[in-house]
């Protein structure tokens, strides 16, 4: 497996914590407009070459989750904006086109400094 | 001629490519080539669905537009008219200012603004343009009272769904879904 994407969390917004409690992690690159910071987990985005696909491994702070579904616009969002929406629902068809579904059931703890990797 | 016939048959991308070749061909100025060229160029225009040109309003004045949902979009549509001090067409999209945001700005006299490049206050924003797949941005701007146009055909969803309604949100919008409203 090669690392397709690697980034480090720089901040976690107050509302992002509430989203996480509902099993949703919303990432944005640090360029995101300020009004999104409350809702987002910000990270140092570097545009990736390879698309995220089902079967990839998403690693959050050393805990691994398997990607089960990738929405139609999820890869554009990630590449252009560092924007990634992860749901831990294990669906093969994501509920919304911007999402990536992974296994796990609940979202892991996340804080500034947490390392995020996508491997495939 | 054979070249143009081939392009005409292929349509789509080939038509766009053909339109570029047409520019070169027109310079060489054979009448027959020019005739074929104009036909191909017409197809090329259709292929990219170019928005009809409309003159900008006089500087310092604003015009109202109606923004309709696209074929696969959600909502009844929104009327938007910028005003002095609240005239930003705020593009929160990947890859810079989205053509839909630019179109709204051109027609209304508002200012196209890249939310990823610069900062603005909510009270300065006439309308936000997003390319949201349905989770976060879709709710943030409606929640803040900003009329919101989604390029993607998303329906209200996500943790902020309760803030999204037909008065503040329309989706699936393309450049041809924006029309000037006569006042």
The gross shape of chain A turns out to be globular
Q: Largest sheet of chain B, order of strands side by side?
A: 4-3-5-6-7
Query: How many domains make up the 3D coordinates of chain A?
Result: 1
Helix percent of chain B reads: 25-40%
Number of helices of chain B: 5
Short synopsis of the structure:
The complex is a heterodimer of chains A (120) and B (183). With 120 residues, chain A is mainly β.
Structure characteristics:
heterodimer; A: 120 residues; mainly beta; M1 Pyruvate Kinase, Domain 3; 8-stranded mixed barrel; 2 helices; 8 strands; 13% helix; globular; B: 183 residues; alpha/beta; 5-stranded parallel sheet; 3-stranded antiparallel sheet; 5 helices; 33% helix; 16% strand
Write structural notes for this entry.
The complex is a heterodimer of chains A (120) and B (183). Chain A has helices at 14-21, 74-81; strands at residues 3-12, 24-29, 41-43, 57-60, 63-70, 84-87, 99-102, 115-119. By secondary structure, chain A is mainly β. Chain A has a single domain (3-119), classed as M1 Pyruvate Kinase, Domain 3 (Beta Barrel). In chain A, a hairpin with a 2-residue loop joins strand 4 and strand 5 (63-70). Chain A is globular and about 30 Å long. The model of chain A has no long low-confidence stretch (mean pLDDT 95). In chain B, helix 1 runs antiparallel to helix 2 (12-28), helix 1 (2-10) runs parallel beside helix 3 and helix 2 (12-28) packs antiparallel against helix 3. With 183 residues, chain B is α/β, with parallel strands linked by helices. In chain B, strand 5 (125-130), helix 5 and strand 6 (148-150) form a beta-alpha-beta unit. Chain B folds into two domains: 2-48; 65-180, no CATH class. In chain B, 33% of the residues lie in helices and 16% in strands. In chain B, the strands form two sheets. Chain B has a five-stranded parallel sheet with strand order 4-3-5-6-7, sandwiched between helices. Chain B has helices at 2-10, 12-28, 31-48, 99-108, 137-143; strands spanning 65-67, 78-80, 88-92, 111-114, 125-130, 148-150, 169-171, 178-180. Chain A binds chain B through residues 18-19, 22, 24, 26, 31-36, 39-40, 71-74, 76-77, 79-81, 83, 85, 95-99, and chain B through 92, 94-95, 115-117, 119, 122, 131-137, 140-141, 144, 152, 154, 157-160.
């Amino acid at each position: 497996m090669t690392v397709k994407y690697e980034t480090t969390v720089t901040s976690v917004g107050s509302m992002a914590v509430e989203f996480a409690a509902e099993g949703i992690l919303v990432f944005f690159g640090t360029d995101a407009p300020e009004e999104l910071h409350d809702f987002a987990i910000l990270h140092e985005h570097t545009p990736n070459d390879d698309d995220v696909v089902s079967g990839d491994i998403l690693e959050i702070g050393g805990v691994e989750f398997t990607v089960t579904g990738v929405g139609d616009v999820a890869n554009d969002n990630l590449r252009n904006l560092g924007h990634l929406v992860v749901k831990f629902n294990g669906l093969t068809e994501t509920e919304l086109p911007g999402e990536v579904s992974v296994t796990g059931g609940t979202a892991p703890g996340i804080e500034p400094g947490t390392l995020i990797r996508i491997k495939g | 001629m054979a070249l143009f016939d081939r392009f005409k048959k292929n349509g789509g991308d080939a038509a766009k490519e053909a339109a570029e070749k047409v520019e070169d061909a027109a310079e060489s100025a054979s009448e027959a080539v020019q005739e074929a060229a104009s036909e191909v160029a017409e197809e090329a225009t259709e292929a990219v669905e170019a928005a009809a040109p409309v003159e900008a309003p006089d500087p310092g004045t604003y015009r109202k537009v109606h923004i309709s949902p696209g074929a696969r979009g959600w909502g009844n549509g929104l009327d938007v008219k910028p005003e002095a001090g609240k005239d930003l067409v705020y593009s929160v999209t990947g890859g810079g200012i989205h053509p839909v945001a630019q179109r709204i700005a051109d027609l209304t006299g508002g200012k196209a603004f890249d939310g990823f490049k610069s900062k603005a206050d909510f009270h300065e924003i006439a309308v936000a343009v997003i390319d949201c797949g349905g989770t976060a941005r879709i709710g943030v701007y409606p929640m803040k009272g900003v009329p919101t146009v989604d390029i993607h055909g998303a329906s209200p969803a996500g943790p902020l769904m309760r803030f999204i309604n037909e008065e503040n949100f329309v989706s699936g919008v393309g450049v041809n879904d924006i029309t000037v409203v006569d006042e």
